[in-house]
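All the exercises in this workshop are built on plain-text protein records. Sequence and backbone structure share a record, each on its own labelled line. The question running through the whole workshop is how a given chain folds. The record below serves as our worked example for the rest of this section.
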Amino acid sequence: MTTHKIGIIGLGKIAQDQHLPAIRANPNFELLAVSSTRGLTDHDAQYTFRDYRDLLGLKDVEAVSICTPPQVRHQIAREALLAGKSVLLEKPPAATLSELEDLRHLGEKQGKTVFTTWHAQYNKAVGEAKKALAGWSIKRLQVTWKEDVRHWHPGQQWIWEAGGFGVFDPGINALSIVTRIMPEPVFIKTADLEFPANKDAPIAATLQLQTGHADGDLQAVFDWRQTGPQTWDIEVETEAGFALKLSHGGSCLEIDGRLVVQEEPAEYQGIYRRFDALLTLGRSEVDDAPFRLVADAFMIGRRVQVEAFED
C-alpha cells in the first residue's frame, strides 16, 4: 500500500472543516505540509509555510490540495504541476474554463494527476439517483438551492468579487449533481442573475434549462438570502411518471415518496479515496460539465440589479 505525501495550499474554512479531517482519516495519505497566508502552528502539519512556493519546494510532497479562492487557483496549480506535484482542485476548479483547460493539458504534459472535485457527487444518494434515471426521458426538474451566505461564508469578501462566483459557489454543487444524474446533457436556456448594487457577483439566480430533444419543465433557483432552515433539494419527474427527490444537499433520496437512501454526508472521504486511486493509477479526472453550465449562465444571463447587501 502506497502512502501519498500531500500538502494543502490555502487553509480556509473548507480546508479546516473537510480536507484536514479527511486526509488524517485516510491511511493512504500523510499530511506533510500546509501553506496559508493566515499563519499556522506546528500542529497543522510537519512543515508549515506562509508562501506556497516554499511548500512546492519540498521534494517529498507528491501532491497538493489547492483550497484557495478560485481567482488565484490557476497560477498556483500551474506552478505545482511544473514542480512535479499532482493537484487536487477544490470547486470551482479555476476562475475560467480556459484556465482549467490549460491545467488539463499541462497535467498531461507533466505526467501528473489533475483532479477536479465536485464534493456533492460523492453522496451515495446521488449515485442511486443516477441509476434510477438511466434511460428515462425527463419531464420536470426543479432545483431549489437556498442558503444563508452570512452563515456559510462569514467575512469572505472574495466571493463577492469578479471571479468569485457569488451564489454559484454553492449553486455549482447543485449543478454538479444535475450533470451527474441526468440521463442526457443539460443546457442553459435562460438565466436571470441578481446582483446587489454594491457587489460584483450575483446573490441569486433563476435558470431555465433544456435538453437536446425534449421540451420539459427544467429550472433551478439559487438564493443566498435564505434564513432559518436551509434548502438544498432536487426534484425530478420522468415521462414514465415516477418521481425522485434528492434533499439535504444530495445525501437523502426518495423515489415516489419512499425513502431509499438517508445517510450522513461523507463527501470528502469519498474524494480522497478517489484521489488515492487516481494517484496510484497515474490518471487525471477533469470534469468540466458543472463549470460549463455556470459559465453559460454568466454568458447569456440577464443582469438584474437588486438592493445593496451588507454581510
